[in-house]
Amino acid sequence: MREVAERAGVAMSSVSRVLSDHPDVSPRMRRKVMEAVHELNYQPDILAQALRIGKTLSVGFAVSDIANPVLAEIITGAEKRLRAAGYSLLLTNSEGNAELDIEHISLLERRRVDGVILSLVDEHHPDVVAALRQLACPIVLVDRDIPDGVTTRGASFDHALGMRAATEHLLELGHRRFALITGGPERPARERRQAVEETLANVPDAEHTAYPGGFSVDHGRRAVLEILAQDSRPTAIIAGGNMLMEGALMSLREAGVRLGGDLSFVGCDDLAVAELHDPPIAVVRRDSFAVGDAAAELLLADLEPGSNADAPREIVLPTEFVARPSCAPAPR
DNA sequence: ACGGTATGTGTAATCTTTGT
DNA sequence: ACAAAGATTACACATACCGT
Which parts of the chain span the membrane according to its record (predicted)? Predict the structure, then answer.
């Protein structure tokens, strides 16, 4: 910057004003400075700027499992919005391990990110909650409960909406014995399971078994093996997560089960695999890009005071059930 | 509309004091 | 004399503020 100032024959402060769009700049000054900037190929040092203005213009995004394609979409949505606002994304992956979440929260803090977006492995983990409580920067949780005593915003889905519709659809097709493969303690798993169980509670002869475990392909695989080994098999399986769906479909294929005939199946998230599967898989669909975008918007409301002061504390987006041939009338 | 200058940042390197 | 602890400064840069 000093070299630019010398080359342009002006003061460093003038260079600063030109580059940060300060109003007190004449066209002549702007021209002189920009000329020197181009000649020297000068680019402001973001680290030095951060030192000076106390902001790094970076946002941390702690992801529970980066292998989950839905999270890739959420990140895409968030990054696009943040980039437009001049922020860069710093990504961490916790590989489904809550301990890593804790490490990443403090790591992002030490990296002086201006705010964080968190898709936590387990938002009820006491140490995670403690870490959130002492985190000073603005926080947005993606599709997680907001723990007590933590001031954060949230961008979530109404999982119950799509799950209720899916369950009702299966009931209308005559199904009464359900199996629900679900995740761990996090909000989407809890909400999906609750929606299914509440819907079935209104139907006297309906029964169901839940297979909680975690959002992994492997759990989906094992749960289906367990389900198929039963004496009185369920006639409908609901996989409460896209990776669970993937694992479940693997086991079903290996077992030679033809979906839509003996067994109806509902998965989660409208990934290519669901539509391209034979038969196509009914799913509960959601707009993951939109929730990423919403999370970024909420965070920006905190990062840029005055921009959107009356932003809501929480944004909840809908989910919808998409009926496809993997659901068929129950065998009699 | 401009120039000059003090300021702030966190750590590592360097210098100074203290203790044994 | 030497180690350890404590204090200061260098670093690299951009910007806020003040004065003209």
Answer: none
Residue A258 and residue A179 share a domain: yes
Alpha carbons A1 and A213: distance in angstroms, whole number? 56
Whichever domain contains A293, its CATH number is 3.40.50.2300
Q: Look at residue A25 and tell me whether its pLDDT is greater than 80.
A: no
- Strand C neighbors by CB, 7 A: A 1-2, 12-13, 15-16, 19-20, 22, 44-45, 48-49, 51-53
Q: Quick one: A171 and A278 in the same domain?
A: yes
A321 found inside a domain: no
Does residue A307 register a pLDDT over 70? no
pLDDT tens digits, one per residue of A73-97: 999 999 999 988 888 898 999 988 8
pLDDT of residue A306: 60
Tens digits of per-residue pLDDT, A99-119? 999 989 988 888 888 899 999
DSSP letters of A248-313? Answer: HHHHHHHTT--BTTTBEEEEES--HHHHHSSSPPEEEEE-HHHHHHHHHHHHHHHHSTTTSTT--S
Number of domains in chain A: 3
Nucleotide nearest to A33 (CA to C1'): B2
- Do A103 and A23 belong to one domain? no
Query: Are residue A124 and residue A240 in the same domain, yes or no?
Result: no
Q: Which bases on strand C have an atom closer than 7 Å to a protein beta carbon?
A: 12-17
Nucleotide nearest to A51 (CA to C1'): B9
The distance (Å) linking the CA of A47 with the C1' of C8 is: 24
User: Gap from A136 CA to B18 C1', in Å?
Assistant: 39
A203 within 8 A of A171, measured Cβ to Cβ: yes
- Least confidently predicted of A51-55, A262-266, A297-301, A313-317: A51-55
Q: Are strands A314-322 and A282-286 parallel, antiparallel or unpaired?
A: antiparallel
Q: Give the residue numbers spanning the domain of A224.
A: 159-286
pLDDT band per the 50, 70, 90 thresholds, residue A308: low
Q: Which positions on chain B have an atom < 7 Å from some protein CB?
A: 1-5, 7-9
